[in-house]
User: What shape does this take?
Amino acid sequence: MTKKFYISTPIYYPNAKLHIGHAYTTTLADYVNRYKKFRGYETYFVTGSDEHGQKIEDKAKESGESPLVFVTKIINTFKDLWKDLGIDYDHFIRTTDKTHINYVKTNFSLLLDKGYIYKGYYEGWYCKSDEAFFTNSQLTKEHKCPECGNSVELLKEESYFLKITDFKKWIKQALKHDDILFPHHRVSELINNFITDLQDLSITRTTFKWGIPITEDKNHIVYVWLDALQNYLSTLTYKDAPWSVDDVWGVDSDVEILQIIGKEITRFHAIYWPIILKMLNYREPKILAHGWIVTDKGEKMSKSKGNVVDPSLLINKYGRDSLRFFLINNIITGEDGKFSENLLIENINGLLVNKFSNLISRTDSMVKKYFDGIVPNGGKLSTLELHLNKKTDLLLEKYYLAMDQFDFSKSTKILINYVEKLNHYVDQSEPWKKVDDPHLATILNFLIKEIFNISSLLGSILIDSYEEVCNWLSVTNKNHEDNLNTDFANVKLKPIEHLFKRI
Ligand code: MSP
Assistant: This one.
């Protein structure tokens, strides 16, 4: 039976254009999704936009548009960016879609019926820019929002609540003992900072209108997080969804789940979200919380700080493969990592040009020079090739392990390390000195096979380069692990440009 994989990104706020931080999350998700397909999985990849809330209502007002007109324009820029970055998602969900709205309303009624929702009053410190309430003790010393540092205001209003506290013990145990949250060190952080003080979650608002109205009480709209989190379920109720909510989230499901998020929304995803799932009799998620992209001075990039980098400019200047590779390779998965244009250029020149591109172009010119561009048949392998063959087996094992442990930045190091080994093999075997030696054919046959192997693995990141390598080798049946170790003997090499150029 085909194995199945479900992957999601957060749904982003359409209050401004996306920046490199959002591109980072989505690139990681695209990488894993392509990797899983490569391994033979059937996959479903969802991303989208989180469109309700007061902040968006205010922004739309400022620009003199209705909220829906306002967000629709911004969402088009999201979709353009994903296209430019090669993000191959299956569904773009909008929380203003009828299907999603109906789903949220129905579940509200269901949770109310089950006794998990009650009506009361909420008083707390509200941060508009994070759309979140904080208790006194969670505020900074300066009495500001602990997440973004902006001012907070004291609000008291009638609200419906979700009985989160009923599940306090359960979630603590689940976080400790089940593999819900990666990297694991975030678990104790979460338990210490949030579980001890855990309170019921306020899930409706009466002070603004831009949200999903509940059937039971016309003054209330669903507060954004209960609305937003359920996109991960409602996406499976759309007409074109390949699987149902039960197929994926049912307790007996064998679909693998991975939800990639940035660390600042871990609280919502690793505490409230599993509890909501539990209330609905669904199973626990698997969440990877990555770190932040920071400036070279170590500051978090964010819209509110005005220090963001526009990924579209980088794609135009350096190509999407370079950006995708940088993000996955240079930011240690799970930790904060720096971005600057200089770092990107160093990465392109040092790894993609000097190592990867160079390996291909030197091999290409040798096949063209010594064999008229037709890949020769290989003969008996020498110890050098046999040794490398062993390394290839190990490479695959190590690479698959890193990917399955969600250690994406390690996965690229493993691949680049193999590219280095292949370059070293060329230097050691000195094909240019073997023009009259029958082993020359074996070396080049072997190199072409290995270049295809490594390009196939890198192909989940370097999507355009992989296409070019396939074109070079006339490969049509691509992107699958069964094609590894293809013998290209007698294939006529097509022209190939330098995949990456020195900057
Ligand atoms: N709408 C909520 C998510 C709801 S999911 C049910 C939201 N949206 S957001 O537009 O603010 O996007 C937040 C996400 O963007 C983060 O979780 C993270 O994935 C990404 N990033 C935003 N800034 C970032 C960095 N500086 N670095 C890395 N990722 C960051 O929160």
